[in-house]
Amino acid sequence: MARKETAADAANPGRLKQIALTYKMTRRADKTIGLVLAAVGIVTFGVFLAIGFLIGHPIYLGILGLLLAFLATAIVFGRRAERAAFGQMEGQPGAAAAVLDNIGRGWTTTPAVAMNRSQDVVHRAVGKAGIVLVAEGNPNRVKSLLAAEKKKMNRVVADVPVHDLIVGTGEDTVELKKLRTTMMKLPRVLTGPQVTATNDRLRAMGDLMSNMPLPKGPMPKGMRMPKGGGPKAR
Questions:
Q1: Phi, psi values for residue 78, rounded to 5°
Q2: Exposed/middle/buried for 155, CB within 10 Å: 0-12, 13-18, 19+?
Q3: Which end of the chain, C or N, has fewer beta carbons within 10 A?
Q4: Rounded to whole angstroms, what are the CA distances from 161 to 24, 88, 107, 234?
């Protein structure tokens, strides 16, 4: 029992520190975050307290309003923090890989399955929707890189649907903040065993970057592919 309490006490400061760090990072991009959160909490609590006085139960509605105020504040904070994070990541090489890495259960992601010397890169995700190739970089250059990888996928796993997305802000692209939502909306056509079999076949095929260590999250802007590191036809 004592060990459990000690572990819980040690975890709480860690959570509070993480929340404080997230708030500071969000405030850099969203200067009004403090005022917004205060307004949400006060208005939510005030509405329920006023209803409590009207119906003769200010204590009960006040307690309920306080709980809901914390909940509403947490939801708003989470959304604005996420928006600020995407805003800071937008346009950085490897940002899409960071999103894919946190897409959730049911997906197996492989970063940088294809890349050229200009840092245009294609990532791969496999799930019940099939294979999703996510490209980031210059839209004009990345299309050929994406087409080559899609052609390779169709040769190796011809019975699995292959989707392709380009992350960006222009026409025929998907914004970084909408990438996860877009992928989750794709129709599910594979069963669990089929997803496993597809991953096994792709793993056996090997990837362009399988023997090159890559940092997690956005790639350093100065990183360059070695000569001859582009995709090769098989």
A1: -60, -45
A2: exposed
A3: N
A4: 42, 33, 15, 20
Torsion of CA 41, 46, 47, 49, to 10 degrees: 120
pLDDT in tens, 125-172: 999 999 999 988 888 888 888 888 888 888 888 889 999 998 887 788
Type of residue numbered 14: G
In terms of Cα–Cα distance, which of 123, 214, 220 is closest to 166? Answer: 123
* pLDDT tens digits, 64-91: 999 999 999 999 888 787 776 666 666 5
Identity at 200, one-letter amino acid code: D
CA 124 to chain centre: 14
